[in-house]
Design goal:
Layout: H1 3-8, H2 11-19, H3 25-32, H4 40-60, H5 72-79, H6 86-107, H7 116-122, H8 129-138, E1 139-141, E2 144-145, H9 151-177, E3 188-190, E4 193-199, E5 208-213, E6 219-224, H10 225-258, H11 260-285, E7 292-294, E8 299-304, E9 317-321, E10 327-331, H12 338-353, E11 365-367, E12 371-375, H13 388-402, E13 407-411, H14 420-437, E14 440-445, H15 448-456, E15 460-468, E16 473-480, H16 488-494, H17 499-507, H18 511-596, H19 601-632, E17 633-635, E18 644-647, E19 652-656, E20 665-670, E21 673-678, E22 683-685, H20 689-707, E23 713-715, H21 721-737, E24 742-746, H22 753-764, E25 768-773, E26 783-788
Parallel strand pairs: 7-11, 10-14, 10-15, 12-13, 13-14, 23-24
Antiparallel strand pairs: 1-2, 3-4, 4-6, 5-6, 8-9, 15-16, 17-22, 18-19, 19-20, 20-21, 24-26, 25-26
Length: 789
C-alpha cells in the first residue's frame, strides 16, 4: 500500500500506540514492519488471531510474558558456536520457559472453546525444559554462577574458602607481630593477594614483596614472605575457578547450539505472540471489536470512533457505502468534522487490513481493498512552486493512474483552490471517472453543485455534518442521505444581523434554491430518525435469528437427552430387579436344601409366592421398555442397503450395510463399528416434527452452500489425516458442482503429515486436474492450490 496514504492517515501513530503494549523489542520490530495485508485470507486470519488473543485475555488473564527479553543477538551468537555470558544464557532460558508456559496457557482449556489460529502458531513450540533447568540450576544472576553448577566448581570454591580462612588467620597473626611497623592495624588486598600496610621507613623490617604504595608514598603495601605460598595457592584456585566457569558456560552454550533450530523457532513464536497480544491489549484499551471483512468492498462502520481522539470527546458516527451506493459526497461547514470522518474511514480500513481490531460496534464491516488512496491536507511547496490546487491535482493525477475496483479513494475538499465553477466541474468529472472504474469513494466538498450531482447520479449519495444553529456549533454527527445546508441566514440572525437585511438577501435568491434548502431541512429530521430505526431493526433482527437458532438447537438436545435418560433408567431398573431375582433364586435353593433336611412345605410355598412376585415385577419392567421401544419405531420386515434404522439394544441409530442373510441377520454400521443384528431387532424410526424441521433446514443450507456459496478455500487444521481426507473429498465434490475452477486447501505447515495425506488423495481424485503448493502470498507450504476439471 502506498506510503503517502499511510502517512496522511497517521498510521504510524497507531503502530506506536500498539508498541506500548509489547514486552520485547523484537515485537516492536514486527510492528515497525507491519503493513496492510494484500490478500483477504491473511486479513481474516490476522484479525482472527487478534480476536482469539482478546478472548484469552478476558478468559484467562495476562499471558506468561514475565521476565522475557529480546535475545535475538544472543541466539545469533550461539548459532555461530560462541560461548555466551551468564546473563545471555539466563535470558534465553527465560524465553524458553515463556514459550513452554505459553503452550500450557493456550492448551489448558476451561471450556470447549478453541483458539484455532493461536493454537496453530503454538503447535510449533518445542519445550526444552532440560536446557531451561540446566541453565537455571547453573546460573544465579547475570554475573553469578551457582556453586552446584558442577561438582568441580563446588570443590574448587570449598577449597578456596578454606584457603582464604587460613590466610586470614595467618595475616591476623602477622599483624600482631608487625603492629609497630604498620600504618594501620588492617590488612588489605592488592591484585587478589593479601598485603600489609607498612610505613615506608620500616620497610626493611618486614620481609616480603612490595605490591603498591600510597599516593603520598608514606605507606608501602607488602606481601610478607610467609603469605606468598598461601596467596599463590589462592591465585591458582581462582584461575581454576575461572576456567571451570568458562567450561560451564561453554557447555551450556553448546546445549543451546545443539538445539539452535528449536531455540530460534521458539523465540520467533514468542515474539509473534507478543505482537499478537499487544494488538489484543490495544483492542481492550480502546474498546475495539473484530469487523467482518467484505470481499465486495462493502463498508459499514457502526458507531465508528477515530482512535487518535480521546474517548471522552470523540463523537461516534455510522458510515456505510458499497451496497446501494459506492460514492459518498460529504458537505458541511468548516470545523464541522468532515475531514475527521474521512480520516476515520481511511484509518480504520488500514488498521483492519493490518489485522488490528477497530473502535466500532459489533457487526461492523470493512471492505477488502488492495489500495487506499488519500488526498487529504494541503501540501504546498515553495521550492517546487506548487500552489494548493497544484498539490492536490498532483495527488489526484497519481490516483487516477492507479485506482481500480479494488481501491478506496478519499478526497478532502475535491476541486478546491481554484475557480469554483471550474473546480466543481472538474470534481464531478473525477468522481464520474473513478465511479465508472468501480472504486469506492468518500469525498468532502463545499461546492453546492456536487450536492445536485449526488442527488441525480446513480450510485452516489449525499451526506453532511450536522450543525446546531441554536449553539452555533457543529455536533460532529454524520448524516448520510442528507446534503448539507448552509444555514447562513439562521446563523446571521443568531449573531444579530437585522431582519431587513436577511429578508433582502432572501429576495435575491431564486425561489427554487430556497425551497431546496427548506426541503433539505425537512428531510434531515425525518431521514435521521428513519435511518436510525432501520439500522436498529436490522441489528435486532439478526440477534433474534441467532437466539432462535441457538434455542431450537438446545431444545432438540434436551428432548434427545430426556429420551436417552428415560431409556437408561429403565434399563438400570431391569438390571437391578434381575439381580434381585437371581439372589432370590439362590436363597430359595438354599432354603430347599434346608427343607430337605427337615423344614415344612408351608415355608417353601411362601417363598415360591415371593419369588413369583419378583418375576412378575421384572416382566412388567420388560413390557414398559418394549412399549418405549415400540413408541420410537415400528418393527421392520425388510431393509435396504444404506437405510437408517434404530437398534433398541444399542439405543442408537445405525446404517444398514447388507440385506438379511439366511440366519435373518443384517450387517449394520454404528459409528466406526460394524456388527450383525437380527432383522427382528431393528426398528423404523419416525422423525418428530422438530427433527424434520431441523433436518430440512440443514439440507437446505447444505444445498445452498454446495450450489451457490461454496467457499474458495477449506481449512483442515486441527483435523487428523482420515477426517481431513474425508472432508476434502466432500468439499471437492461441492466445488465441482458449484463450478469453481480453482480452490485452496489450507492444511498448515506443522510436521507435514496432513499435507502428505491430502496430496496422496489428490493424486487419485477424479475432480482434480492439477495441484501445487501455495506461492508467496497464498500461504506457502501451508496451502495446496487445486485446479478442478
Amino acid at each position: 500500500m502506498n506510503e503517502k496514504s499511510l502517512r496522511v492517515l497517521e498510521y504510524q501513530k497507531i503502530k506506536d500506540m500498539v508498541k506500548k503494549f509489547t514486552s520485547t523489542a523484537a515485537a516492536k520490530s514486527i510492528i515497525d514492519q507491519l503493513q496492510p495485508y494484500d490478500n483477504v485470507y491473511e486479513v481474516r486470519e490476522h484479525l482472527e488471531e487478534t480476536k482469539e488473543a482478546f478472548d484469552l485475555l478476558v478468559r484467562k488473564g495476562a499471558p506468561p510474558f514475565e521476565g522475557v527479553y529480546d535475545v535475538r543477538e544472543a541466539v545469533s551468537m550461539a548459532s555461530k558456536g560462541a560461548s555466551l555470558m551468564p546473563g545471555q544464557l539466563l535470558k534465553i532460558a527465560q524465553m524458553l520457559r515463556c514459550a513452554r508456559r505459553f503452550k500450557e496457557y493456550i492448551y489448558h482449556k476451561e471450556d470447549e472453546e478453541g483458539y484455532r489460529v493461536i493454537e496453530d502458531i503454538c503447535i510449533g513450540i518445542i519445550p526444552l525444559k532440560n536446557i531451561e533447568d540446566e541453565i537455571f540450576n547453573a546460573i544465579i544472576g547475570e554475573e553469578e554462577i551457582a556453586d552446584r553448577a558442577s561438582s568441580a566448581l563446588y570443590s574448587i570454591r570449598k577449597n578456596l574458602k578454606d584457603k582464604e580462612s587460613s590466610v586470614k588467620d595467618k595475616v591476623g597473626s602477622m599483624m600482631r607481630n608487625y603492629s609497630q611497623y604498620l600504618q594501620d592495624n588492617l590488612y588489605t588486598i592488592r591484585g587478589d593477594r593479601y598485603v600489609l600496610p607498612v610505613r615506608a621507613e620500616h620497610k626493611g623490617q618486614v620481609q616480603g614483596l612490595v605490591h603498591d604504595q600510597s599516593s603520598s608514598g608514606a605507606t608501602l603495601f607488602i606481601e610478607p614472605m610467609g603469605l606468598v605460598n598461601l596467596n599463590n595457592e589462592i591465585k591458582e584456585l581462582r584461575l581454576k575457578e575461572k576456567a571451570e566457569i568458562e567450561r560451564i558456560l561453554a557447555m551450556l552454550s553448546s546445549r543451546i547450539y545443539d538445539s539452535i533450530v528449536a531455540v530460534r523457532n521458539n523465540g520467533d513464536i514468542v515474539w509473534e505472540l507478543d505482537f499478537i497480544f499487544a494488538k489484543a491489549k490495544f483492542a481492550s484499551e480502546y474498546d475495539c471489536t473484530n469487523p467482518i471483512v467484505s470481499e465486495e468492498g462493502v463498508i459499514d462502520l457502526i458507531q465508528a470512533r477515530h482512535p487518535l481522539i480521546s474517548k471522552d470527546i470523540v463523537v461516534p458516527n455510522d458510515v456505510y457505502l458499497g451496497r446501494e451506493f459506492t460514492s459518498l459526497v460529504i458537505t458541511g461547514p468548516n470545523t464541522g468534522g468532515k475531514t475527521v470522518t474521512l480520516k476515520t474511514v481511511g484509518l480504520l480500513e488500514v488498521m483492519a487490513l493490518s489485522g488490528i481490531m477497530i473502535p466500532v460496534r459489533d457487526n461492523s464491516t470493512i471492505g477488502f481493498f488492495k489500495e487506499v488512496f488519500a488526498d487529504i491536507g494541503d501540501e504546498q511547496s515553495i521550492e517546487q512552486s506548487l500552489s494548493t490546487f497544484s498539490s492536490h491535482m498532483t495527488n489526484i493525477v497519481n490516483i487516477i493512474e492507479k485506482a481500480d475496483e479494488n481501491s478506496l479513494v478519499l478526497f478532502d475538499e475535491l476541486g478546491a483552490g481554484t475557480d469554483p465553477t471550474e473546480g466543481a466541474a472538474l470534481a464531478v468529472a473525477i468522481l464520474d471517472e473513478l465511479k465508472n472504474r468501480g472504486s469506492k469513494i468518500v469525498a468532502t466538498t463545499h461546492y453546492s453543485e456536487l450536492k445536485g450531482y449526488a442527488l441525480k447520479a446513480p450510485g452516489v449519495e449525499n451526506a453532511s455534518v450536522e450543525f446546531n444553529v441554536e449553539t452555533l456549533r457543529p455536533t460532529y454527527r454524520l448524516l448520510i442521505g442528507i446534503p448539507g445546508k448552509s444555514n447562513a441566514f439562521e446563523i446571521s440572525r443568531r449573531l444579530g444581523l437585522p431582519d431587513y437585511i436577511i429578508t433582502s438577501s432572501k429576495e435575491k435568491i431564486a425561489e427554487d434554491s430556497l425551497q431546496f434548502e427548506d426541503l433539505i431541512q425537512s428531510l434531515q429530521d425525518k431521514s435521521i430518525k428513519a435511518e436510525q430505526n432501520a439500522r436498529e431493526t436490522e441489528m435486532l433482527k439478526l440477534q433474534a435469528a441467532k437466539i432462535k437458532e441457538k434455542y431450537e438447537e438446545k431444545l432438540y438436545k434436551v428432548d434427545k437427552s430426556r429420551e436417552k435418560a428415560l431409556m437408561e433408567a429403565q434399563r438400570e431398573a431391569k438390571r437391578l430387579i434381575k439381580e434381585a431375582k437371581e439372589e432370590a433364586d439362590s436363597i430359595l435353593k438354599n432354603i430347599r436344601e434346608l427343607e430337605r433336611r427337615g423344614y415344612s412345605s408351608d415355608v417353601r410355598r411362601e417363598l415360591e409366592e415371593e419369588r413369583k412376585k419378583l418375576k412378575d415385577k421384572l416382566e412388567s419392567v420388560d413390557d414398559k421398555i418394549q412399549n418405549t421401544i415400540s413408541d420410537n419405531g415400528e418393527k421392520l420386515t425388510t431393509v435396504e442397503e444404506g437405510q437408517e434404522v434404530f437398534v433398541p439394544s444399542l439405543n442408537q441409530k445405525v446404517t444398514v450395510m447388507s440385506k438379511p442373510d439366511n440366519k435373518g441377520e443384517v450387517l449394520v454400521q454404528a459409528g466406526i463399528l460394524k456388527i450383525n443384528v437380527k432383522l427382528e431387532d431393528l426398528r423404523y424410526v419416525k422423525e418428530s416434527k422438530e427433527e424434520k424441521k431441523i433436518k430440512r433446514a440443514k439440507e437446505k443450507r447444505e444445498a445452498k452452500l454446495r450450489l451457490s456459496t461454496v467457499a474458495t478455500s477449506i481449512d483442515l487444521r486441527g483435523m487428523d489425516a482420515m477426517e481431513a481426507v474425508f472432508t476434502t473429498d466432500k468439499y471437492l465434490d461441492d466445488a465441482c458442482m458449484a463450478g469453481l475452477s480453482e480452490v485452496s486447501i489450507i492444511h498448515g505447515k506443522g510436521t507435514g503429515v496432513l499435507r502428505n495425506a491430502i496430496n496422496d488423495m489428490l493424486k487419485r481424485h477424479p475432480h482434480v486436474k492439477n495441484y501445487r503448493l501455495g506461492n508467496y502470498g497464498e500461504g506457502g507450504t501451508g496451502v495446496t492450490v487445486v485446479e478442478i476439471k
